[in-house]
Specification:
The structure holds two protein chains of two kinds. By secondary structure, chain A is an alpha/beta fold. Chain A is built from 16 helices and 32 strands. In chain A, about 45% of the residues are buried. By secondary structure, chain B is mainly alpha-helical. Classes of the chains: A alpha/beta, B mainly alpha.
Chain lengths: ~600, ~375
């Protein structure tokens, strides 16, 4: 006996004031047209806490199946399953049509939302109906970003005997990890882990390292992307430079060193840091006197290699063809100047964690001596080795993170790196008083909680309570905080304050996302296909994301994502095919596929 | 202190204007950024905690909200947008209703219709009593009759009765406040401190010196508030206590001290009220972002009283007896409900609770330091 299936579609969408969301009224109108749909409900007008009332509605309409549609409708499943069961139907007949899960988020994705809903109504998994076509894949791969994640991805792909272009914006690969002294929780030396990998990248026959380069545009489709790349001129012949450093010695022009988080000065002709890969000099055109006004050229005169330095070299544009692209562009630290109460930029000894990281680094500008910031002859604030050391240091967590005024999200790494920095500070200055002010201690990984306990027992003053403001008090800084656990106000005077700044999406990530056709979330991080089951994939075919550009994460996770992205790339190269973007599949195609599949399933039953 | 957790407290407090109370994750930013917090007086976070946990008894004995002048720094820098400043403001409303034993305050705050009704009834009563009692033949020469002895006697009697009733309610409520905040939580205040502390009251009332600390954004709310407060107090004293001297038949020279005092009071009232009105209208400053009905009523009623008072003065100088008479009635018809409703039961009551909260703050500090000392002695 054939039983007629009456489906109710229930929309569980909350716009929360956002306007650029899926157009529910349009999807609802579409839903009413699908055969088998008896009625359309909205959770906003349903007595959602009252299962008895819903049961009554189900029985009245003769509903035997409910499709929950919305951004993330899962939370309503229990209510409807209970009501269905109470009405004498099968509780498992509650099907979800999750828009976000399948990439329908914005208003322009309304057609995609319709397709997702159609699949749910027909009882066909969306993935089975929305199968993108496959195209041949070009074996070369482009990795954008030379941080630890990009390095890992490049090495894995290159070790699989495939050609990789590793593109890096600055003069060296290594990214933020190269700036760190130690890593948490093992307190391994960051450079000892990273530099061998960097050298391997530099020497790998399958890796074409493109430093000081930027992506200008991407065209083509999955499997065959044409990428236009701007090769900024380094004005030093990378093939003949012997890296002797004479040019740097004689160069008269100084600029803040990016690698030292701008706490020290470098020359206009420079090498980012001694272990940089490639280990060759380059000229910063923005600060070079010759580029500015044509006078100088001292570096050319002192260079022992003839024709090595060409101050008139121009930027170049190249185009490469790749089958896959791995995006591993990382992050930028939160600009602590935004937080007025902390006086960063006003008080010289309020510094950011990244600055402190360079200060404490044995290979940093002060050889690891923690000293006060002082002014050089030209008035630049730098860290001079000869300055005195602070006797008390305070670290403030959650600067720019977990804050509605700046970034709502938790930057994940700050608690742990602050503990690490506190430990290192105590190690270098055993007599100094080191305090930490936190909101919640988030030690989330393997061995992290143990690390926290260890630091807690090292005589570091760990206080629960967010510091509200920093004021100058004589030579010292006055912190005002509430000690939540102690139930008192704390007004502490310290010599130096370290702000644990959070991670933010890079300024250029929006531009890159547009070029690549990948989506960003509201904080600017790149969107993955599925947060749980596919954290490195994107809806654009042949493009994967890895590392912090997908969301804040620590080094182990970044490395793991680099490997994951590499395996995705290798898989497509071995297969010789890559799936095209799911974005391009039309509603009609998905709909007809779903119909076909549901017919097959019905016939089988 | 054993107390019952009241899970519905926060829902109830919504009527007094609290919002976003549940956003707070207790980082302590608000307490630390506040220019007025002190050891043992950790607001606003403590109050947020009490609201979140439904600790009604603790909340009733917590007079911290009265110490806050709402500079808005806490709300501005709150990482959760939990609006601690507005919570303190709402708790001041709530505490007013807690201290008030008559129950009118609670009624007016939670059921707006009753507040309006009371105001309208009093308004009509005043007008009606004038219609019934006022000798019609005197309307034509009201500009001089206004200072007549027989007329003044009645007005003064009414004034004094009203002042007595209001004062009785306020004073008894202050005793309740003292009972709830000092006696009930068993703070052992050395008896002598009650006398030592009494000197703070007039000083605090006259200068509102701690308000000055709250002008954090460079705007002089303190000056503004001081103008309004002194203007109001001066006018109150002139028209209630010194009515026979103030409201006289003859018109003094403009530089006569009585007129000058009156003009200062009027200016203070007008200036302070306009600044507050504009602030609440534009909602730019954190402290004026949210306005409860009681805040608007406070401004509007006082503004109408001031305005009608000025008009009475102008019409009288212009020798227009009828206009003076009718405006005089309206003036009283607005003034009476304003004083009867606002002063003991609504926003105006802060004129008593604020100075006394500082007095109690002094007492509590004395008790805490004594407790601390005895603890130290016991330890030794």
């Amino acid at each position: 006996m054939e039983e007629k299936v009456n489906t109710a579609v229930c929309f569980c969408q909350h716009t929360n004031g956002h306007t650029d969301v899926v157009d529910i009224s349009e999807v609802a109108a579409y839903a009413e047209e699908i055969p088998g749909v008896r009625t359309v409900w909205y959770t906003s007008s349903l007595p959602i806490a009252d299962t008895r009332e819903i049961t009554r509605m189900i029985m009245e309409e003769g509903i035997s199946r409910i499709v929950l549609a919305g951004e993330q409708p899962g939370m309503y499943k229990t209510v409807f399953a209970k009501s269905l069961a109470a009405a004498g139907m099968k509780a498992e007949n509650v099907v979800q049509a999750g828009f976000r899960e399948h990439g329908a988020i914005k208003k322009s994705d309304t057609d995609r939302a319709k397709a997702i809903l159609a699949c749910a109504v027909y009882g066909v998994p969306f993935e089975n109906a929305a199968i993108p076509e496959e195209s041949d894949v070009h074996p070369d791969t482009l990795v954008i970003g030379g941080g630890i994640s990009g390095i890992q991805a490049s090495l894995e792909i290159a070790d699989g005997n495939q050609k990789v272009y590793l593109l890096e914006k600055t003069g060296t690969i290594g990214g933020h990890m190269a700036m760190f002294d130690k890593t948490f929780p093992t307190l391994d030396c960051a450079a000892c882990i990273l530099t061998p990998k960097m050298v391997e990248v530099g020497q790998h026959p399958n890796i074409d390292l493109m430093t000081y380069c930027e992506v200008l545009g991407v065209s083509g489709e999955a499997g065959n992307y044409k990428v236009r790349i701007l090769k900024k001129s380094k004005r030093v012949d990378q093939a003949t430079c012997i890296g002797c450093g004479t040019c740097m010695e004689k160069c008269p022009k100084k600029a803040p060193s990016e690698f030292d988080a701008e706490i020290s000065m470098r020359k206009a002709i420079y090498i980012p840091f001694p272990q940089a890969v490639p280990n060759k000099y380059l000229i910063d055109a923005d600060n070079c006197t010759y580029v500015e006004n044509g006078k100088c050229g001292i570096c050319v005169k002192v260079c022992p290699v003839p024709d090595c330095i060409d101050l008139d070299q121009q930027d170049e544009e190249v185009e490469i063809t790749v089958g896959n692209i791995v995006v591993a562009t990382g992050f930028k630290p939160f600009d602590a100047k935004h937080v007025d109460q902390f006086g960063y930029g006003k008080f010289p000894n309020v510094i950011t964690s990244l600055e402190f990281e360079r200060l404490i680094n044995a290979a940093g500008p002060t050889s690891g001596n923690i000293v006060f910031r002082s002014q050089d002859k030209k008035g630049n604030w730098i860290f001079n080795d000869e300055s005195a050391s602070p006797k008390s240091i305070a670290l403030i967590h959650c600067v720019g993170s977990r804050d509605e005024n700046y970034n709502k999200y938790c930057s994940k790494v700050c608690c742990m790196y602050s503990l690490k920095l506190a430990h290192l500070a105590k190690e270098k200055l055993p007599d100094a008083e080191v305090s930490e002010y936190y909101i919640d201690m988030r030690s989330f990984g393997k061995g992290y909680e143990e690390f926290y306990e260890r630091i807690d027992n090292e005589g570091i003053n760990i206080i629960r309570g967010r510091t509200a403001k920093i004021e100058e008090s004589g030579d010292q800084l006055l912190l005002r905080s509430e000690d939540i656990e102690g139930g008192r106000l704390i007004e502490q005077k310290v010599d130096m304050v370290v702000l644990a700044v959070g991670l933010e999406a890079r300024d250029d990530s929006e531009e890159l996302a547009k070029m690549l056709g990948i989506a960003q979330d509201e904080n600017g991080w790149f969107n993955e296909t599925n947060f749980l089951s596919d954290p490195v994939g994107t809806f654009a075919g042949g493009i994967t994301i890895a590392g912090v550009c997908q969301g804040p994460k620590d080094i182990p996770d970044s490395v793991a994502q680099g490997s994951a992205a590499a395996s995705r790339v290798l898989q497509s190269i071995i297969k010789g095919k890559v799936k095209k973007s799911i974005k391009d599949i039309s509603l009609d195609y998905i709909e007809s596929n779903a119909k076909k599949l549901s017919k097959i399933m019905e016939d089988k039953l | 202190m054993i107390q019952r957790v009241n899970p519905d407290l926060k829902k109830y407090l919504v009527k007094y204007g609290i919002q976003d109370w549940n956003e707070c994750f207790h980082c302590g930013n608000c307490t630390a950024i506040c220019p007025l917090t002190d050891q043992g007086f950790l607001f606003p976070r403590k109050a947020i905690r009490q609201v979140q946990m439904g600790l009604k008894t603790s909340l009733a004995s917590n007079f911290d909200p009265w110490l806050c002048y709402y500079c808005g720094e806490c709300s501005e820098t709150c990482p959760r947008d939990a609006n601690p400043g507005e919570l303190m403001m709402s708790l001041r409303r709530y505490l007013t209703s807690v201290y008030d034993w008559t129950g009118f305050s609670k009624l007016f705050y939670t059921k707006k219709i009753w507040e309006f009704l009371t105001i309208i009834i009093l308004f009509i009563l005043v007008i009606a009593s004038f219609v019934v009692w006022f000798p019609k033949e005197q309307i034509a020469n009201f500009t001089t009759y206004i200072g007549d002895h027989s007329f003044l006697k009645v007005i003064e009697a009414g004034d004094l009765i009203m002042a007595a009733v209001v004062a009785f309610v306020l004073i008894s409520n202050i005793f309740r406040m003292w009972y709830l905040t000092i006696l009930k939580p068993k703070y052992k205040v050395p008896f002598i401190e009650y006398f030592r502390g009494i000197y703070v009251l007039p000083g605090v009332f006259a200068s509102q010196i701690s308000f000055r600390k709250c002008d954090t954004d460079g705007r002089l709310y303190w000056v503004n508030h001081l103008l309004l407060m002194t203007g109001y107090t001066l006018m109150f004293i002139l028209v209630v206590v010194f009515l026979p001297k103030f409201q006289v038949s003859e018109v003094y020279n403009w530089y006569h001290w009585q007129r000058l005092l009156g003009y200062y009071a009027t200016f203070g009232l007008l200036f302070g009220l306009s600044a507050m009105f504009i602030g609440r209208w534009r909602k730019k400053s954190e402290k004026f972002k949210f306005s409860h009905l009681s805040d608007w009523l406070f401004i509007i009623m006082l503004f109408l009283t001031t305005l009608t008072g000025i008009l009475v003065h102008i019409f009288r100088l212009a020798d227009m007896p009828y206009a003076t008479y009718y405006l005089y009635i309206i003036h009283l018809a607005v003034l009476v409900p304003m004083i009867c409703v606002e002063v003991p039961f609504s926003k105006w009551s802060h004129l008593a609770y604020r100075p006394f909260s500082i007095y109690f703050y002094y007492l509590k500090k004395a008790a805490l330091s004594k407790q601390h000392k005895s603890k130290l002695a016991a330890a030794a």
